Amino acid sequence: MTPLSENPFTLGVASGDPLPDSVVLWTRLAPAPHEPGNGLPADGSIAVQWELSEDDTFRRVVQSGTADAPAADSHTVHVDLRGLEPGRVYWYRFRADRWISPVGRTRTAPRPDAAVATARFGLLSCQQFDEGYYTALGHLAREDLDAVFFVGDYIYENAINAQGGARRLADPLPSFYDHWTLTLEDYRQRYALYKSDPDLQAAHAAHPWYVTWDDHEVANNYAGDISQDNDPVDQFRARRAAAYRAYWENMPLRRPQRPSGPDLNLYRRFSYGRLAQFDILDTRQYRSDQAYGDGWHAPGPETRDPARTITGDAQERWLLDGFRASTATWNVVAQQVAFSQHKETPDDDARVSMDTWDGYSASRDRVLAGVERAGVRNLVILTGDDHVHFAYDVKKDFDDPDSATLGVELLGTSVSSGFDGDERLPDWETTLAANPHLKYYDGRRGYVVVTLDPQRVRGDFRTIAKVTTPGAPITTAASFVSEAGAPGLQGA
Length: 492
Known about the structure:
Elements: E1 13-19, E2 22-28, E3 45-53, E4 61-70, E5 76-81, E6 89-96, E7 99-100, E8 104-107, E9 119-124, H1 135-141, E10 147-150, H2 184-195, H3 198-206, E11 209-211, H4 233-250, E12 268-272, E13 276-280, E14 296-297, H5 301-304, H6 313-325, E15 330-334, E16 352-353, H7 361-374, E17 379-383, E18 389-395, E19 405-411, E20 421-422, H8 428-434, E21 438-452, E22 456-464, E23 474-483, E24 486-491
Parallel strand pairs: 9-10, 10-11, 13-15, 15-17, 17-19
Antiparallel strand pairs: 1-2, 2-5, 3-4, 3-6, 6-7, 6-8, 9-21, 12-13, 14-16, 18-19, 18-21, 20-21, 21-22, 22-23, 23-24
Helix pairs in contact: 1-3, 2-4, 6-7
Protein name: Alkaline phosphatase D family protein
Pfam families: PhoD, PhoD_N
Domain Phospholipase D N-terminal: 11-108
């Protein structure tokens, strides 16, 4: 192998999908991160050594080995470690030639039968590079968390100018980024741009992540094989295949998630001792086309059509079967778009979004019926997409405020998408009046810290005032709890 003359670890390290005895370690070699090909050969493979230690000085290394970084996988490394101790913190690093990567910290899940006293998780989504700095991620890196849920829009597909949009970069970006992503090379380089951000690298290095996608990892508001612009299906499936391949390459995911062309099985389940079961959904790949041509419309026969689905039949059966089999205190569903009803105005014929579960209300009804049949009493739904903080009670009948509350939904704001935002957006009063099950609404950037214990779930809504300039402080704008066995959000 030709010696590496420049540091190849410019995109950081990551870990993810922790099991009681396993975790995935990730890195990507990129000595020239903003050049197509990243300054590495277009074929062959580079040997990368890895170490896992019980301490951050690597005096107590417990496992080590060598993995390939193939050119065919954009020189990414996925190490699926086995034989680890449950509920343990470990540190890891990589070496290629004479270069050593930053150190990452990860944690395995507890044993399935473990009585977990408390666990804390971050909830993230929507980090458009050119609409602001990742200040929130820098703060999240310093949180004491067991893991992070990222629920969509890790990258965006839009063109980015030399100044990085709202970042107004002093060092201009290459012109390569100033076009929309269509090809495999486009998507690979978009991840390289995003992952070059130091705050994103810090957040990955600090915690293991559970990831899922939404639409912008491919293209805005796509539905299965149908693009927003109704491109020819074969053409769009080729774009989806490129996007899915780049997604797998750049995420800490296992081999079973490796895509086959335009198909990637991303929905999956994890346990966290006896405390929680995590069901991570994919509401993009299998959904029916949006009703009424997408956008916002009053509900009608199309939105209520039981033949239409947001999850696909197989994923829906898997989710409901998982509810029936669950013995966990908390059933946590991590997914992309607003689950709870969200009316634009208080009118009876108010418009709702066709891209959320409101546009697929028969799907939502089947899930809620499955929750009741399974006797799930502690349902928590974690969501992103809306670029605002929302906290909802999940109602059996959203049109009847007095109907039973079946769970709660914590919808986290964006990391940067939407620019700075504001605490109270112009529709603040109207939105709260139109949705009595909505308990909180804040339009600033940030994330949510979700704490679970056997007695309650708590959501701390963190916000920052500005993302268009770096360095803003983090504040806890609001906190809510829901008691085990008595779902419904109350101020903490």
